Amino acid sequence: MTAPRTFFSADYNEARAKFLAAAKARGLKHTAYLNPHAKGPKGEDLTVDVAVLGPANAKAGLLVISGTHGVEGYAGSGAQIGWLQSTRNANWPSGMKLVLVHALNPYGFAWNRRVNEENVDLNRNFVDHSKPYPQNKGYEELKSAIVPVNLQAETLAAADHTLRAYGKVHGAFALQEAISQGQYTHPDGMYFGGTREQWSVGQILHIVRREFGHAERVGIVDVHTGLGPYGHGEIITEDEASNPRYARSKRWWGDIRSTRAGESVSAHVLGSVDSGLLAALPHAEVTVGGLEFGTYPTLDVFQGLRADNWLHVLGDPRGPDAPAVKAAIRKAFYPDQDDWKDMVWKRSEQVLSQAVQALAAG
Ligand SMILES: [Zn+2]
Questions:
Q1: 263 alpha carbon – ligand 1 mean position (Å)
Q2: 305, 135 in Cβ contact below 8 A?
Q3: Tens digits of residue pLDDT in 170-212
Q4: H helices present in the chain, as ranges
Q5: Distance of CA 168 to CAs 159, 163, 261, 303, Å?
Q6: Choosing a second label site near 33 at 20 to 30 A (CA), which of 49, 153, 183, 297?
Q7: Coil, strand or helix at 220
């Protein structure tokens, strides 16, 4: 058996090449969607790659997405490549469709950023842009601590003090919510949801409508990293416990955690991929989970993100500050350790197998 570490890649280009080779070897049909708005750090083209197995009009299908959050794509790409390279995919049920979407945010993957080419968090962009945006009062209060003017030690210490004080008054969860639930007023800030539909969002909506337009039952797994204990993979749902989808997800995967019930490592967020894809497939019974892998403590991850945001909106992504900032954010979302890769693969294999089994059982 191939060692799981070989499923993972050192950068976007390697991940893409490995994914395409694995998809070709298994006879999947490949389509590349070229991002017309951005290039990689070496001037390279950036694509969302889609590999499809199974009949066009399948009644049941599984969608696996990697790299919604760019730099988090190392894990999801490894899971997709592992699925194709290992024997897991050898007994694919006839009549079922498998759709692998590789690097939904290719700019973020290539540049080691969580956001896309417009500094937008795709997992906050699935909102109705013709309506007034939701408010985030906590973010407004904390914005100068979230986007400090520089990365000097005393500036960051003062910013951290502000955040800690907010946490003391409102609680740690309220602090996480204020920072990460999404905001639509500060394009230079963090967790910015954008003020128009992003290119990647248009692509994934097109892909799911095309691939699952005839499906009656669809499973969706969107792979993320950066929240929770090192190597632990939590299935996140946005459904309340009273929703039939919650019960179904629980039957599929056993232990699931709802952001609505405060059970999850994640805050309940606005304009998520889950909500967008559910709305795009109103005719189908959709079961959807975010698969979130822990890396390092939340504060380290946040500080890595904050420095990266500073680098791209106020600093110079090719300047002297860049190497340290880039190394830190990459590590925060991709530990690049064999034990972590083993855990990510093992859990991904389990979660995807459970979904296939449930879909096949009907
Ligand atoms: Zn994520």
A1: 17
A2: no
A3: 999 899 999 999 999 999 999 999 999 999 999 999 999 999 9
A4: 12-25, 73-85, 106-111, 137-146, 153-170, 172-180, 199-212, 244-253, 273-280, 298-313, 322-333, 338-361
A5: 14, 9, 22, 19
A6: 183
A7: strand
Note the residue count of the chain: 362
Q: How far is the CA of 224 from the centre of ligand 1 (A)?
A: 4
What backbone phi and psi angles, to 5 degrees, belong to 50?
-120, 125
Q: How far is the CA of 294 from the centre of ligand 1 (A)?
A: 11
Environment of ion ligand 1 (residues, CB < 5 A): 69, 72, 224
pLDDT digits (tens, 9 = 90+) for 202-214: 999 999 999 999 9
Question: In whole angstroms, what separates CA 341 from the centre of its chain?
Answer: 17
Burial zone of 268 (CB within 10 Å; 0-12 exposed, 13-18 middle, 19+ buried):
middle
And the tokens for 290?
A: 């975010």
Q: How far apart are CA 107 and CA 130, in angstroms?
A: 26
